[in-house]
Write a structure and sequence with these properties.
PH-domain like, flat, coiled coil, Substrate Binding Domain Of Dnak, Chain:A, Domain 2, three-stranded antiparallel beta sheet, repeat, Annexin V, domain 1
Amino acid sequence: MKVTVDFEECLKDSPRFRATIEDVELDVAELESKLDKLIKLCIGMIDAGRAYNMANKQFVNGIRDLALQSTKDTMIESTLTKFAESLQEMNNYHTILFDQAQRSIKSQLQTFVKEDLRKFKETKKHFDKVSEEKEVALVKNAQVPRSKQHEVEEATSILTTTRKCFRHIALDYVLQINVLQSKRRSEILKSMLSFMYAHLTFFHQGYDLFSELQPLMKQLSDQLDQLVVDSAKDKRDMEQKHSTIQQKDLFNEDTKLEYNVDTENGIAMEGYLFKRASNAFKSWNRKKADNIRRWFSIQNSQLVYQKKFKDNLTVVVEDLRLCTVKPVEDIERRFCFEVVSPTKSCVMQADSENLRQAWIKAVQNSIATAFRENGEEPAPKLDKKSSASLGSLDSGAETRSLKAESALQRVLSIPGNDTCCDCGQTEPRWASINLGITLCIECSGIHRSLGVHNSKVRSLTLDSWEPELLKLMCELGNGVINRIYEARREEMGERKPQPGDPRQEIEAYIRAKYVEKKFVLKPTAMEQRSKVTALSKQDKRPRGIVEFLPPRPPPPTPKLRTTSSTTAAASGQEVRRDSLFCPDELDSLFSYFDTSSKLRSLRSADSGIQNSTDGSREMLASTPSSNSPSEPELPESESPVGYQRRESPPVFSELTDFSPGLLLYWASCACSLPDMAEALAHGADVNWVNTEDCNRTPLIQAVQGGSLITCEFLLQNAAIVDQQDIRGRGPLHHATILGHTGQVCLFLKRGAKQNAVDTDGRSPLSIAVEAANADIVTLLRLARMNEEMREQEGTYGQPEDDTCKEIFRDFSQMASNHPEKLNRF
């Protein structure tokens, strides 16, 4: 034991002893203060912990109540019950921890303070008193004169006695100090160690408890991914049903009939009817309409009603085979009909004539069905096609599910797409639309973390798919992309992830594959030169022409919008359609947009638009025709459709180094998606400008190639839709000049500026009008008017009008699935 105060110094009562005593007393006083504070804090912690335990107990009871309320859902009930038990066990562990804190900190330290420190303080009082008496005795002994012998003896005796007492008390005080200093260590460390062991036990028990719970939690976590997907699918289905029903005219009586059939429950007809009292007065007059309005239904060959859902059914007619039904016209009330049985009759009133006829027909059909069932003939099942309610409620969801299923089947039918492109997981349900690959749910999450500049992820089952995007997915596929992005994988000895591998390994592989592009094989200079040369030879532009406009067609022979197949076959020629819309349809179309008075006021104030809405319609309706005789003829050099010739430009300079941008440029013109994907894998700039070819971009070259899918691929990979060439013409200009209606529709949907003009001051609309292309004129005018309507109504950034969306969707479907129908010649 380390001695704090030396016993020898105690006997000497030296200044060192006094200084040491003073230091010890100050230290003990500070120790007492700190221990009191710690005890108070411990008491506060224990009180707060008990309050927490009480609140936690109430929370666990709330979980149990929620589990009891969810008895119909066994998954929620069992999971919540298990979680509540675990949390209750943790609450018990908390209680044990706080009890241990009270025993180890509060009780032990309080005992140390109350007993040991109090004893030290009492001994100090004795020491101070005896020390003072000693000082007095010393002073008195020093003051006694020699001449007074008896006083000298008395003073000496008192001094001797006082010194003995001082030495005894001082030794006890020093002993108490040394024992206290030693005991403070053991008491403090003992209490804290006990408290820390309580924590160790608490966390060990919690770890063991949740280790047993972990398999259930992991299983639930795995199920939650599917639950989230199912929830999102259910939400979209419900939104689709909501939208379908919302679009119906709920105030139309015919529409109300759609909700009166429930074949699954054997109900042939149901709905509210007013019922005339069956008493002697035959009265309709009641204080409240609820007293005479009942919910009638025809089920099990009976006519029944109930006032409220929980009420028992009241049978009006027990057997419909014995009844007849007829309309009632001889009373004051309208829309009444009567069901007559051998014992009684019941007069009821519908809300409209349509509903009355529907009820009469339903009763008659039920009578016939009852007779067939009595003859042991099976009752015919109600077909969904004949049930307005089922058809109307389910058509939207069925159509959407069929579309989603069709998209999934078409994409997965591509060889290699039936497994995840990166890990090989079967039945992938996600896709990267800019890469053209299919992914599992785990790899799709990693692709999302790469950013949309690297990968754009979309669900094959939950999201809607535009036709051009679906065709793009079918043109590429996992096989094509892996041949590019994994060309050097085996050479480098890199292992491809498998399903079930740690997420970190899969993520590292995907980043190396698509972001770092470590496995992409760079071609040799000879391969580069030969590939670019071969692609450049597929340039579809006429040589020696900078740009050209198609000449105005000769005046067409007046004809109807539709021509019989017999006449077309007899003529031996394909009947060409000048526009998707006849003049009457165009008139109705623009009348729809002209319903906005704000739009009309804008048109009247805008000198760039026709003076009247009729002018707009006349221009569109007349575009397929040729110039009128009164139109002045322009010289070829001044004509907007004239040719502007120059010497044939060099296709490209001699290759000195591989240029991924040049490869992308000519691959876009040749409509070679694999070569385009390879160029992007080599780092090609999707907006690369060919300064040797009038500052054209790959997107403009894709327009020249005439492929809608090529344009979609470039746009999905961040191509700028309005980037212009040296003549100020963007992709929309070029598509209009070439008469590519599908591409025009695509660029307008992607936000192309339809009012941009080139260096000659021509906009796409003016070019389309001059070329007499009615389809493109229709699209451009619709886009322009839709934009003007949004500006007038202050709905910038809002979705376009529904009619406009439908027209663009029709054009997209035709351009993707039946492009021959958009050919103008």
